[in-house]
């Protein structure tokens, strides 16, 4: 067995298998539980439009980038697990081509090249791998770029097939720059790789190598110049709004000295982030590493096992490797160029790697330079092989465990998303076309306010349209002076446009201390548990827009199967029945919830059941349940007071008068601030 394993380790196919194993541990174990996040919803919406011709208009700022989805849609369809696997394989392929390219140029550094590939695959600065639909476009571009680099070097190393490999490299290189600007800056490392490839094994004749380098680079440079003209001059003239406008580049040209100081500050901050901050953050960030939880210890254990196994393999695979004296300097130069020029497109738009939420996506290009520099620095700084191996093993283990925990964070976020979507469906099974939905911001931490537009339509309409039936506005990004009926509203994303009015709207609240989704209706007025951002929007929340005829369940391919029935299921169904004045159904739902021992965390969620008891003349039960609600939330007195004042208008017999008087004394007096 040991002999077979020893022979297998020496095979060329074993390293891709080892890299695959690292990826499966870091990303793959939780893949079946992941869903859609952030800009994924753009791709999901586009797919369900079933109109390939609109793809280029949909991504009008990156029209060639639509090719990625035209390639992937037919077989990936819109199943979350398939997209997770696609994104995983695209990234794996890109990293392998980098590894093979480095091996062609520096074959004597195969051991360190393996470490670079492994660390690049699980680089802890890029934490958006689960955003699979959106970043499949980026990762396909990355794959084309790295494959182009490999074929370019292969053409120089294997001149016999130059006529095949070099044209393919130029084709893929041209395709990737027009698909997406993320890796355009990395084109600068091509002449460096060409130079080092031509110089390997040669001495003298530097001028001849320079001319050959320029000759081989010239077609790539020509493509790059054409792209820059297209991107900076032509494309903006076709757009009403350029989402990737190179604002900083324009300001730099207008004021070079000021721009230079700003650029130097960006270089300093982002270089520190990429080279130093991302590694300890993956291990020590308290928001990711709560040591009191079992899953954290599991991620540490898996990371330790995986990195030690890889270290043993790496050491066994190349036990007597001797590095070339000049290769460290060459790789240092390559790393600096990849880091700086890889980040250049980010800086040109005024963004930064260290710029806040979602800015981690900007590490996709410069992380190649960061990993090369980190590994090269460790190789130069430490004298013994054991010292180098230990530190690289620790970095790999930290990265794997950090990515594993990040996958858990995304899994939990998807579970929370699904809870909100299904609860909203139970409460709003059908909605009048043209209705606007207002909420308190993004649904979860891993979603965005503008993608709520796509999500709401896919959830409530079940399909995607150029002129959708619904729109979502969050109160943080639509800061009206006064939310009153009669205000026209428009929403436009990509090729999609919606026109509506605050006169036809509903407002819903979600994610407040684990509460259920609540559609604002008059019974919840003065409830202190409502989010402050929606508590004043009762005047535009018209539940009559919620129709009686139920639509089918949400598309299970997108939203999964219905979650198990918990308290929120009974609350949403009861609130809908209360709106329809179906008091019998409300009380049946209460009895079933009681049978299973379910109850709310917030007092306001008892209000539909309290009203049902009152409407059916069960005054004792209504009063006792009101006391129970008051016991949950001390500040709910005014909401209960409002309810009992309404109950007093139902009739005027002695029993009603007795209970409304007692309730008024208990809730109304104490409920006033």
Features:
mainly alpha; Serine Threonine Protein Phosphatase 5, Tetratricopeptide repeat; 673 residues; elongated; two-stranded antiparallel ribbon; 4-stranded mixed sheet; 3 domains; 25 helices
Task: Describe this entry's structure for a reader.
The chain is mainly α and 673 residues long. It folds into three domains: 13-411, no CATH class; 428-563, no CATH class; 564-673, Tetratricopeptide repeat domain (Serine Threonine Protein Phosphatase 5, Tetratricopeptide repeat, Alpha Horseshoe). It has 25 helices and six strands. It has helices at 2-9, 14-26, 40-49, 55-58, 66-76, 80-105, 110-121, 132-157, 162-179, 189-199, 206-234, 247-254, 256-284, 294-317, 327-348, 367-381, 385-427, 451-460, 556-559, 567-579, 583-595, 607-615, 619-632, 637-647, 654-671; strands spanning 436-439, 471-474, 488-493, 496-501, 505-509, 518-519. A four-stranded mixed sheet has the order 2-1-5-6. A hairpin with an 8-residue loop joins strand 5 and strand 6. Helix 2 runs antiparallel to helix 14 (294-317) and helix 14 (294-317) runs antiparallel to helix 17. The termini are far apart. 46% of the residues are buried.
Described by the principal axes of the CA atoms, the overall outline is elongated
Alpha-carbon Rg, integer = 30 Å
State mean pLDDT (0 to 100 scale).
Answer: 88
Number of DSSP helices?
25
The secondary-structure class comes to mainly alpha
Helix content: 55-70%
Compute the separation of the termini in Å.
77 Å
Q: Largest sheet, if any?
A: 4 strands, mixed
Low-confidence runs: none
Order of strands across the biggest sheet?
2-1-5-6
Number of strands: 6
Count of separate structural domains: 3
User: How much strand content do the residues show?
Assistant: under 5%
